[in-house]
Amino acid sequence: xxxxxxxxxxxxxxxxxxxxxxxxxxxxxxxxxxxxxxxxxxxxxxxxxxxxxxxxxxxxxxxxxxxxxxxxxxxxxxxxxxxxxxxxxxxxxxxxxxxxxxxxxxxxxxxxxxxxxxxxxxxxxxxxxxxxxxxxxxxxxxxxxxxxxxxxxxxxxxxxxxxxxxxxxxxxxxxxxxxxxxxxxxxxxxxxxxxxxxxxxxxxxxxxxxxxxxxxxxxxxxxxxxxxxxxxxxxxxxxxxxxxxxxxxxxxxxxxxxxxxxxxxxxxxxxxxxxxxxxxxxxxxxxxxxxx
Length: 292
Prior knowledge:
By secondary structure, this protein is an alpha+beta fold. 40% of the residues lie in helices and 10% in strands.
């Protein structure tokens, strides 16, 4: 059984390039639970708040419910749900899952193979993260679900990132953050700067300049979290949901609202409009603050 292929091939709701990481987040949560508690069942009522938090933090900005993946993941041969009376899942309604004392767990064949090969858990975790989220979020997601992948040898997903992407983006933006202008060097090498994908690599975003932007480490993280975005006229958008009251938050985040983004050198294309539109729709936490 190729479990890596199974977890990366789970059936998901799709419409164009919209994100639907509900099932991957539940699987990562279940893997973290397995690492800590074995195949002890996960009560929906006990996990609902945590799963909802994961969806709000790492899912798209559209409203959703953890009841959806808790029920629908059963169709992929990786997850099973039983109620207090021993019957199967009562459906994807929150009330039904609560009232029936529904519990979920990884399927016995998957549990068996996870116990036989300790490396499998890490392989599945890495595959799910690579296929669904930007690298800047991996550590945070693992911390939220209680999943420790560092201590186990890992394999990567089949699709490989272009190793030259970072260098091309850095050259295009002349080693400066497009949002704040930060530039830093140590022993002749740029530090604190990243090449960020605008449309996430995990969701079809290509490794090319028109999908890349140079950001400092802080603004890259905030960009991938949806705190910062890019407007249609290539200005910085700041989510109205972001709260920062200190002087540093004002100077480093709030004051960016409406600031024109520093584009690449003339020889390189700026970020493509369709990539900006994807990030605005799938990542940015709207509405945007009104520029001062």
